[in-house]
């Protein structure tokens, strides 16, 4: 099968997200100008540089009460900071609850039954008990083609690692089993690892 996106795929559901999988989930916490915390998952997320450490996530939707954007993006534009919380298997239901399209000014931490803890380097909350959290300062927002497609880049200024996830000096993802997004409404969990040495190692 071959199709041009502008012509449509002719399938019951768009396969694009199912092709680019698995995708890590950036559980983005932010705070609006009035001090209300926000939390939302984004699966167009990844690390983009080591030195200094930098991450990105893409916002591809809009809410009618946020002037053609989402709460996370509006908050980050207003404050210049955000935090990326890593989602473990045990927090999948809370993550899903935080994805609801709630009215502007709603605290998703409370809605999802989560505890917010203060970050160390930025004025923002993070998810208490998350396996890891990356405190970030906004570096740039890039507008992409499309009605509401924007990419947020941030420099990581502080990193939280949950103590039980550190084993023999390594951040062991099998200790918490990260959740990853697939296509459609599907997710997966990372449980098994294998190691490959690079040819020049």
From TrEMBL:
Give the matching SUPFAM superfamilies: FMN-binding split barrel
Which Gene3D superfamilies does this UniProt record tie to the protein? Electron Transport, Fmn-binding Protein, Chain A
Coiled-coil ranges (or none)? none
Q: What is the top-level taxon of the source organism? A: Bacteria
**Residue ranges constituting the Flavin reductase like domain according to the UniProt record:** 18-173
Q: Which InterPro entries match?
A: Flavin_Rdtase-like_dom (IPR002563), Split_barrel_FMN-bd (IPR012349)
- Cite the GO molecular-function annotations of the record: FMN binding; oxidoreductase activity, acting on the CH-NH group of donors, NAD or NADP as acceptor
Q: Which Pfam families match?
A: Flavin_Reduct
What name goes with this protein?
Answer: NADH-FMN oxidoreductase RutF, flavin reductase (DIM6/NTAB) family
